[in-house]
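Technical appendix A lists one of the benchmark inputs used to test multi-chain prediction within the project. The record comprises two sequence entries:
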Amino acid sequence: AQKVTQAQTEISVVEKEDVTLDCVYETRDTTYYLFWYKQPPSGELVFLIRRNSFDEQNEISGRYSWNFQKSTSSFNFTITASQVVDSAVYFCALFDYKLSFGAGTTVTVRA
Amino acid sequence: ETGVTQSPTHLIKTRGQQVTLRCSSQSGHNTVSWYQQALGQGPQFIFQYYREEENGRGNFPPRFSGLQFPNYSSELNVNALELDDSALYLCASSSLTGTNTEAFFGQGTRLTVV
């Protein structure tokens, strides 16, 4: 069975601080995909990144970076120099033919 | 914007009633999935349609049903509504073609059952 664990329920930081969101997954599949989504108060899930299980390179996109470690089944997400607009709920998800989501981490960035 | 649109955005229904939610998929995507997100939780998979056939279902009762149309748009129908059906319903449009797996979501329909 697919399982995604986001141990951090809420994180609160002051603007310009770095934030790291943890994601640990379980799967028996050898080929799989991992996703991160952002959910602002409006409710829409905004796609941030997709990573397949064969690509362990870390990725950076602007202030966002992702650290994928297959050995520890983790796919962590870091926001560098956080901004108030980063305040949202962030979900990690594992894909086989469907997305299995973690419970989400609420990030609050205070000015 | 993702190109995935859902209607209506908000809906209030009475327990026991039936509801139909709609989703138009992104151009080029042939798969539509529906998710239920209760308050404070992550989205839960309801079912998925590929080329007008259901090809996967989560742990939801049969009163949750769906359709996919030739243009790949989709409907979610819920019969005999219960108070616990109150949630945000999200539609995801997907292209599940090997390395080009992607899934984009609509803005959701917030259903309140009273």
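Chain B touches chain A at residues 2, 33, 35, 41-45, 48, 55-56, 58, 88, 90, 92, 96, 99, 101-108, 110 (CB under 8 Å). Chain B has a mean pLDDT of 91. Comparable benchmark entries are summarised in Table A2.
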